[in-house]
Design goal:
There is one protein chain. This protein is of the alpha+beta class and 301 residues long. The chain folds into 3 domains: 4-85, Rossmann fold, CATH 3.40.50.20; 93-109 and 180-297, 2-Layer Sandwich (D-amino Acid Aminotransferase, Chain A, domain 1), CATH 3.30.470.20; 114-177, 2-Layer Sandwich (Dna Ligase, domain 1). The longest helix is centred in the first third of the chain and has 17 residues, at 16-32. 36% of the residues lie in helices and 25% in strands. Strands 8, 9, 10, 11, 12 and 13 form a 6-stranded antiparallel β-sheet that branches. Strands 4-7-5-6 form a 4-stranded antiparallel β-sheet, with helices on one face. The chain has a 3-stranded parallel β-sheet with strand order 2-1-3, sandwiched between helices. It has 10 helices and 13 strands. A hairpin with a 4-residue loop joins strand 12 and strand 13 (257-263).
């Protein structure tokens, strides 16, 4: 009898379209591996579909809020259904960029200097740029995925416009110093202590707001950069108690390595960062998806 897998995708976040692509790719891979697949476009309710189909495992292919932040994971824990990816607490931690930054500091992982404030406690550009020692700043909503609501500002006008956009999405914003360097992503799979670091991916864009990126694998790193990047990634994966898979975004320059954020449910297609990194390790997309599901099945709730 084949394993019944429920694939959750879609959702209501700003990353809905990408989630649909991930869900379809995962579903096709599972079907190719012989699973009995149920596809479900998640709209903030999961109990009924679980009761009707009684899946053996749920593959969460949701991105952003209400999918990557621990909410769906919590519902599945209550329903005693094993699911792919990180736990409720780890998902919530990684989705909150501010809490992640505090944790980076706690485990001695370098991250860009930052401050944060709410709408009611506005900090002007002149103050923040002096505080962080950098006229170039990065404004981020604390609880959105990808580059949604993110602005790079080098003057007061752009800074205020960026804050307005960010505050439309969240009540608290994170403002970081801008670090110039190469953008890389470390993809990890497995569960502690058997954690496997896939070849590091370098992302090349025309500009920060470019929605597409060319992937160079392996990333063009000096030996000390590669070593530190992998060390940081392993430390984060272990100390954040991540499961099954994750992507960790970093900036690398001639002086150091800086961790930006952790994605517990990155885009999951054959040509995504995850898929390309696996391919560079001679792991097919179908085998990768199967591996993730088998890891989840070992965690019978």
């Amino acid at each position: 009898m084949s394993i019944k897998a429920l694939v959750l995708y879609g959702g209501t976040s700003k990353e809905r379209d990408l989630s649909i692509k991930s869900g379809k790719a995962v579903s096709n891979a599972l079907k190719a591996k012989g699973y009995d697949v149920i596809e479900y476009d998640f709209q903030n309710s999961i109990e009924e579909v679980v009761k009707i189909h009684k899946p053996d495992v749920v593959f969460i292919a949701l991105h952003g809020k209400y999918g990557e932040d621990g909410t769906v994971q919590g519902a599945l824990e209550i329903l005693s259904v094993p699911y792919t990816g990180s736990s409720v607490s780890a998902s919530a931690l990684c989705m909150n960029r501010l809490f992640s930054k505090f944790m980076f500091r706690e485990i001695e992982v370098k991250t860009p200097s930052f401050t944060y404030f709410s709408k009611d406690n506005y900090l002007p550009y002149s103050y923040v740029s002096e505080l962080l020692g950098n006229k170039m700043l990065v404004i981020k909503p604390i609880d959105q995925g990808a580059t949604i609501g993110v602005t790079i500002a080098g003057d007061e006008k752009t800074y205020n416009e960026g804050l307005s956009r960010a505050f439309e999405l969240t009540y608290t914003v994170l403002v970081e110093e801008y670090i110039k360097g190469s953008s890389v992503t470390v993809v990890l799979i497995g569960n502690y202590p058997d954690i496997h670091v896939l070849p590091i991916v370098e992302k090349v864009k025309e500009n920060f707001y470019d929605s597409g990126a060319r992937h160079i694998i392996p990333a063009r790193l000096l030996p000390f950069q590669k070593s530190l990047t992998e060390e940081y990634a392993r430390r984060i994966y272990k100390e954040f108690n991540l499961r099954d898979f994750a992507c960790i975004d970093m900036i690398v320059n001639e002086n150091d390595v800086y961790v930006l954020e952790v994605n517990t449910i990155p885009h999951f297609t054959e040509t995504s960062l995850l898929g390309d990194a696996a391919k560079a390790e001679n792991i097919s997309f179908e085998d990768l998806v199967d591996f993730v599901v088998q890891e989840a099945l070992q965690r019978k709730l």
